[in-house]
Amino acid sequence: MKTLLILGAGKEQIAAIAAAKAKFIRTLVLDMNPKAEGASLADEFHAVSTRDKDAILKFIAGHPGKIDGVMTIASDIPHMVSAAAEAAGARHIPQSVADLCVHKLHMKEKLREGGVNVPAFARIAQLKDLEAFIARAGFPVVVKPVDNSGARGVQRLTAGMDIGAAFAYTKSFAYGGEVIAEKFIPGLQISTEGLFHDGRFYCTGFADRNYTRLDDAVPFMVEDGGDIPTVLNPAQKKLVEAEFEKAARALGIDWGPAKGDMIFGADGKPYVIEIAARLSGGNFCYDKVPWSTGVDIVDILVDMAVGNPVDPARFVPTRSLATSQRYFFPSAGTIRQIDGVTAAQSLPHIRKVDVWARPGETIAAAENHPSRVGYVISCAPTREEAVTAAEGAVARVRFQVEA
To which CATH superfamily is domain 120-183 assigned? Predict the structure, then answer.
């Protein structure tokens, strides 16, 4: 029996644990939280932080059995995956490539060097650097930590804002204290995802990100789900996919997953915002894409990670359905009661309703993706039906909040 080391036992990693177990692959799972949802599902669980490289390597060195592969889902730790896989003698992308993919500034520099379309950007060490960049690029600009994820610390700055306070806020989310600024590109924001297998890149995931709440959350940039299929025409979609692959190759990714945050600009050009060397979170790779296309990228990567053969036919879509995801955004305060979840679950086309906030819990206004409190996902024959179903389900759930 082969063994797969999975970094993370949270809600988002459960799909990898389940896929491996269904193939009779032994699951060895690490997470700092022994109460994580996937901990009890693993064949073997150990309370080890997935961001503590020394602890991970020490664990692998002391593990008595052979580890055939290493992977994660959603967690932005490809550098930990590569380090663990190297120690275990398993397939992985080079450590230098993984390190590049978790540093937004170095990533952007490499992409620009490779001729990839990226927004104008600059390293921001001091407030005067941000002021100088704004003077050159003009508003609006986006500031973000170079080494965080989930929109933590990300802000869209416009004229009249307190730039000094914004810089201090963003810097507080940077593990290493570094901040990057980039020109905000108007256009359709897109999530892409794919796998490199035997030298070929397969773009398996393509969804329009929903930012209709952008002005409600100023200055934060909190996505409210997304929709499959895209509104782009085939030629426009092909342009985005080509730029996505070009970017992944420019970074040196030559095996395994790549996830892209893209924009199809109002100028008709595709732009790369970020590339991650991992599978996506937010139900994209393990719910929305398989439901809409039939391509199960998690199942494929599990096989790739442990060295099992993969038939290229598994990358070919077998269905064409639409999915739509929307999140819950209750007002800030203490939740007293939540109603309508069961009613929402029973609506036509609704596949999932998940609310993790509980009565008695105090919540703040949404500032990043982890601060969202739940979601609905629909699956329907058409995009219009899927969007209508998802938005209708969100409307059924009512949060009674005491400010």
Answer: ATP-grasp fold, A domain (3.30.1490.20)
**Domain 323-402 in CATH 3.30.470.20:** yes
Taking the mean position of all CA atoms in its chain, how far away is CA 162? 29
pLDDT along the chain (403 residues), means of 10: 98 97 98 97 98 98 97 96 98 97 96 98 96 97 93 94 96 93 97 97 98 87 95 98 98 98 97 97 96 98 98 98 96 96 98 96 89 95 98 97 92
Joined together, the tokens standing for residue 259 give: 């996830």
How far apart are the C-alpha atoms of 105 and 114, rounded to whole Å? 14
Q: Give the CATH number of domain 3-93.
A: 3.40.50.20
Domain ranges of the chain: 3-93, 120-183, 323-402
Rounded Cα–Cα distance for residues 71 and 85 (Å): 8
| Sequence-separated (6 or more) residues with CB below 8 Å from residue 300 | 195, 197, 310, 314, 315
337 burial (CB, 10 Å; 0-12 / 13-18 / 19+) is exposed
